[in-house]
Amino acid sequence: MVQAVDLLMLILIYGSSAYLSYRYSFRGMLAGITTVCLGGIISMKVLMLLDPSYSPGVLGAAKFLLGGVVGLLWCASFHVTNIALYKLSRRRGIMLNKAKLDRQQSWFDLHSAPSPLYFGRC
User: Fold this and answer.
1) pTM score of the predicted model
2) pLDDT confidence bin for 103, thresholds 50/70/90
């Protein structure tokens, strides 16, 4: 039971931090690092509550002291991947995000015509 909870929390912590750092760029990377740091501490506390004989020992100290470094390396890899894919897609003229503009349209074409409901300043 304790091992299942430990594995589930590990997957949840690192999965959510990877998603945050890939999806939300630099702010997401900072949030992902914070998630890894706090998630490691919270997982130790949960494991100590579930199993009274559990003692974190050296692993707990390593999670506490090196959580920020591990989180930085983990989240930076997804942040760099996001930047590389974005630059590669821009170089080829392909937009990976479906909500972005098509290749034939430009920002000016979409925003230069006034709305039919626009009557000027009131």
Assistant:
1) 0.67
2) very low
